[in-house]
Amino acid sequence: MLDPKVSVAAAIAEIGSRKIVHVDMDAFYASVEQRDDASLRGRPVVVAWKGRRSVVCAASYEARRFGVRSAMPAVSAERLCPEAVFIPPDFVRYKAASQAVREIFQRHTDAIEPLSLDEAYLDVTQNKTGIPTATLVAKTIRQQICDELQLTASAGVAPNKFLAKIASDWRKPNGQFVIQPHEVQTFLLALPVGRIPGVGRVTEARMAKAGIKLVGDIYTMELTALEQEFGSYAQRLYELARGIDHNPVVSNRMRKQISAEDTFPDDISLAECEAHIRRLAEKVWNASKENAREAKTVVLKLKTKEFQSLTRCLTSRDPVPSFEVFLNIALALRERVDLSPKQLYRLVGIGLSNFRLEEGTPQDRSMAEAPLLIAEETS
């Protein structure tokens, strides 16, 4: 456990001189579509199937100006931007583009941890090309992606993964931001707590009630006080407020689960969760197809108004054959929740696990160990 009196400078010294780059492709799916079809360039592009039950997979920056965002219902996107061009997702092409980006990464380092098709961590503490700084490595990678693939990427450079991921979003699109070790404390203390991984809208609102709005507010609190407010999550908050993240870049572990979840602005009944389950199921199914994975287990996760977590799952002998079967199982799992019909819920999640690899295919070791929570494409 971290010494509560540790300073940011001591913490950075403790993790050594790691150089981590987080590369995040800009509006990746939509950018691939615009690259491959010149008529789409400069136009608002929404990657999604049209339909009442469909959700947005990605939106070009032209569409985002109208408020279109990933994971929103496609009907909402159409209402916000009637002029948008809707393109059905083509994950075969997106995966090919992602692999081409990966090959550029491999020129510089073998320590690559993909998070999805459009983002990855790279440890360039020792790089293959002899480029003297991580900043120049990131700049070179972004230039190669632009020159060779006609796509743009943003990058964050920092002493650890936590900081690098925040930095990559700082100058989007097609930008780069560097956090040097001696700049960590100044950078973090003025940061809104919502930028901390794991701090969603509900936790952020809870923090605000406790007078915690900036990372600097967490930094000034004693660990014991944080534990009283946030339980086991307190230690992680305490460390992140000091710029501490010991998690290494891991490139050789198997993902065990693909999942997505929603925290509701207001608590809702189990019946009212159906629309959210449908949307999350489509998101998870698309992500599983990106990686050509077949799953035998469907998982339903719920969190009650009182923060009680429930998990229900169903495992079949053969992989789930279609989205329709997956969705029906996910919806049916609600029947195995034996709480009162009046019980309210604050969160629902859907997942696929127990993956089967195709016969004769080597294990895909480019995936991080699970469970993996699918993030919205916000780049």
Automatic annotation (TrEMBL):
Belongs to the DNA polymerase type-Y family. The keyword Magnesium applies. It is found in: Cytoplasm. Binds 2 magnesium ions per subunit. Its EC number is 2.7.7.7. GO terms for cellular component: cytosol. One of its GO terms (molecular function) is magnesium ion binding. It is an enzyme of class 2 (transferase). This is DNA polymerase IV. It comes from Acidipila rosea. The keyword DNA repair applies.
